[in-house]
Amino acid sequence: MFSKGLLGYLPANILQGIVGFATLMAFTRILRPSDYGAYVLALGVSSIAYTLVFTWMESAMARFYPAERNADPQAPLLYGTLYRLFAVIAVLFLALLAAAAALWPTQGADQAALKFAVVVGLAANAPRSLVKLVQEQRRSIGRVSAAAGIDMLMTGGGFALGLVFAWLGLKGAAPLAGLGAMAVVVLPFFAREDWGRAWKGQFSAGAARAYSQYGYPISLSLIMTIVLYTADRFMIAHFLSQADAGAYHAGFSIASRVIDVMFVWFGAAGVPAMINALENGGQASLNAEARRQIVLMALVLFPAVAGIISVAAPLSSVLIGEGLRGKALAITPLVTCGALLAGLNNGYFLLSFTLAKKTRLLVLAMLIPALANIALNWVLIPRLGLIGAAGAYLASFAIGIAAAWTLGRRAQPMPVPLVDLAKIAGAAGVMALALSLIPPLGVALDLALKPALGVLIYAALAYGLDLGGARGFADKALARAAVGYKPMMGRR
To answer: How far apart are CA 242 and CA 231, in angstroms?
Structure first.
């Protein structure tokens, strides 16, 4: 299931990476720095609201559907309960949003642009969550092509509509409006079977309690994650300026986008595989699956971090508008390493609590680094500016991993193959050192030569040190290629 998911979700995650960089390229140039800053702040507000209000239902769908379908593939209690809850919550959420928008006073053009972006982003949350409910059901049972197709349509279509809305003058609200509009377009084509199940299913108060007791702590923990990702923007806007918040987000996007997309890719395939391993094979099966996944994550992501840092300067000149570029580049190394720790924390160590269904511990595991992040930003931003915010991000996720591993021993301990991880980190470090010795050759040559050379260096080290069984895998691949080559030679 894991291997199938990795292959099936690869195109969707490649598209996410491309669109992420295209979004950065387009909107840092189309929008004024203050309007881009308004988009960044509105994205933070809408993400917190989305997680607080809707994400717990998506989490319940992902975790409970694989078990409930064993009794009835239609899962009538799950569908009847979750979709009725969604309808009530969405109506109340939008009504509250309308009232808040009417009461929100604004002074000046920048404040008006920020208000509009926030309102649009919040309104887009309801249709986006309904799409996500559909996607999580497909993902939970291995319907990879359907889940990946929804993801690709949302990603590509949302970006295209965002550009249209920017051209129409929506300013910082444009990217968020694009995502909401695309969700409305996608829903009728993908959600018909789900709406039918929901209509036939019955509401169960007991099931609602079970789903909320499982899912809401996950939402609270994810809010802590969002705090780790967004509190620094608001504090930068407070201590420095709204434009500085935009510059920080731009640099953050370059440094973390590829890493985040890769972890999303691994998670889309890996989390359902771990759940199914635990449900069907018990502890031993889970340990084997988890060990395999973290080693593979390290094999791919450790060198990716080294590579991004090596090409940060030419990459920023291509992706970021000139007005934001200099400040954005300065934070790249710290944020890239922080993104690696964030991905390992969120995509591996925190799974201890969802696998064990002890999600209340998950809240505590995320509260610790969230509070540390706020405290560090409060101290460091006034003294070090954007560098201080990046350093706080890195340090808080290091604290987060320590907290998650310690608390996870009380829930579902996750294996940590330290020797394998250390060897992989050492190989990635050697690769980074070798690339750092190459003098600047110009943007085009740097972006073409350094990644290719880095792959060759790392591949040689992986084969020589047999990182994660790379030597055996490569030998088998070469043997299969040789077997296929001989019949071709015979036909000639």
So the answer is: 13
Residue holding tokens 């591993």? Answer: 405
Tens of pLDDT along the chain (492 residues) come to: 555 655 666 777 778 778 877 887 788 788 887 888 888 888 888 988 998 899 888 888 887 887 777 667 777 778 888 889 999 999 999 999 999 988 888 777 778 888 899 999 999 999 999 999 888 888 877 777 888 888 889 989 999 999 999 989 888 899 999 999 999 998 888 877 787 778 888 888 888 888 888 888 888 777 777 777 777 888 888 888 777 787 787 777 776 777 877 887 787 777 778 887 887 787 888 888 888 888 888 998 899 888 888 887 777 777 776 666 667 777 888 888 988 998 899 888 988 888 887 877 888 888 888 889 899 999 999 999 888 988 998 999 999 999 999 998 888 888 888 999 999 999 999 998 998 888 888 888 888 888 889 889 988 988 888 887 777 777 676 666 665 545 544 555
Whether pTM > 0.85 for this model: the answer is no
- Both tokens of 296, joined, read 């593979």
Q: How far apart are CA 282 and CA 296, in angstroms?
A: 22
Residue 410: which H helix or E strand, with range?
none
* Torsion sign over Cα 88, 89, 95, 98: negative
Q: Are 191 and 208 in contact (CB under 8 A)?
A: no
- Residues 6 or more apart whose CB falls under 8 angstroms from that of 470 comprise 299, 462, 463
